[in-house]
């Protein structure tokens, strides 16, 4: 039992759980996107995902991601079974280990993830109905072996190309991309810097940035223009669409856009005109 990759669509929408409302879910479906990703560490009860599923008819709803340190695996599995009974085949459980700055007492992430997956196995959550947030090679290998694939957050196309090589052909690779429809460079970069500020202090993200094309100078002082322009993409809808397609060209099978606006719908409408 699996979520077929074509059912996710080529493009999806990523929104924090507080913003992933039933209303947004209906708009995502209306506009032709295939998946709504519920981010911001949704809890094991999966309430936001359930509400989005209840409000829609066909889209997949995925978590991006449930944090394995704060969401009990058995509770998450029970919620998965509840959602599967109500909406067969439409939910994808995305899980991840977060970042060390928020989980100082955590065990080795790879071991903890493997143990979490063991519980999901025992509780009847199929490998084809879960996806891992994986940045490094060992977690990507685990994602390939024990899930549908990987949902990386805040990664450039160069990482996508490398991740595809590690995952191998046929596995889901669904990166998230921040986008902002704004052609005023100063204004757009200010919004991008605000969105990226916390991530430039988190080692798992900065290590990835340093490995895939950026320098310490790019990361310092709120981020260089070059870093902002690539990781919090701004410009016309056509430019945003081209940025999403760069990940497809690099090997992604699905790309989800996170709109840096309090009301994402106008941007999603304009972007849909370029994508579909």
From TrEMBL:
Q: Which InterPro entries match?
A: Bact_Lucif_Oxidored (IPR050766), Lucif-like_OxRdatse_MSMEG_4141 (IPR019922), Luciferase-like_dom (IPR011251), Luciferase-like_sf (IPR036661)
Q: Where are the transmembrane segments?
A: none
Q: Can you quote a single GO CC term?
A: cytosol
For this chain, one GO molecular function annotation is: oxidoreductase activity, acting on paired donors, with incorporation or reduction of molecular oxygen
Say which species the protein is native to: Agromyces archimandritae
Luciferase-like domain: residues covered: 18-121
The signal peptide stretch is: none
Q: Which domain of life is it from?
A: Bacteria
Among Gene3D superfamilies, the record links this protein to: Luciferase-like domain (3.20.20.30)
Q: Name one Pfam family in it.
A: Bac_luciferase
Q: Which PANTHER family match?
A: CONSERVED PROTEIN (PTHR30137:SF18), LUCIFERASE-LIKE MONOOXYGENASE (PTHR30137)
Name listed for the protein in its UniProt record:
LLM class F420-dependent oxidoreductase
């Amino acid at each position: 039992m699996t979520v077929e990759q074509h059912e996710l669509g080529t493009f999806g929408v990523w929104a924090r759980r507080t913003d992933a409302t039933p209303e947004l879910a209906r708009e995502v479906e209306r506009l032709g996107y295939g998946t709504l990703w519920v981010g911001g560490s949704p809890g094991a009860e999966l309430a936001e995902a359930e509400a989005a599923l209840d409000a829609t008819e066909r889209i997949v709803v995925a978590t991006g991601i449930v944090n394995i340190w704060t969401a009990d695996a058995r509770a998450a599995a029970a919620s998965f079974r509840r959602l599967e009974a109500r909406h067969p085949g439409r939910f994808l459980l995305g899980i991840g280990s977060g970042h060390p700055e928020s989980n100082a007492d955590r065990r080795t992430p790879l071991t903890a993830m493997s143990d979490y997956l063991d519980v999901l196995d025992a509780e009847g959550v199929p490998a084809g109905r879960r996806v891992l947030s994986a940045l490094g090679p060992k977690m990507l290998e685990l994602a390939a072996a024990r899930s549908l694939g990987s949902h990386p957050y805040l990664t450039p196309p160069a990482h996508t190309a490398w991740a595809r090589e590690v995952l191998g052909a046929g596995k889901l690779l669904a990166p998230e991309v921040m986008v902002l429809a704004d052609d005023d460079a100063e204004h757009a970069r200010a919004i991008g810097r605000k969105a990226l500020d916390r991530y430039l202090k988190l080692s798992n993200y900065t290590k990835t940035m340093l490995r895939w094309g950026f320098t310490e100078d790019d990361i310092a002082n709120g981020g260089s223009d070059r870093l902002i322009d690539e990781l919090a993409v701004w410009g016309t809808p056509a430019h945003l669409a081209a940025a999403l397609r760069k990940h497809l060209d690099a090997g992604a099978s699905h790309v989800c856009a996170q709109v840096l606006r309090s009301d994402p719908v106008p941007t999603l409408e304009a972007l849909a005109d370029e994508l579909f």
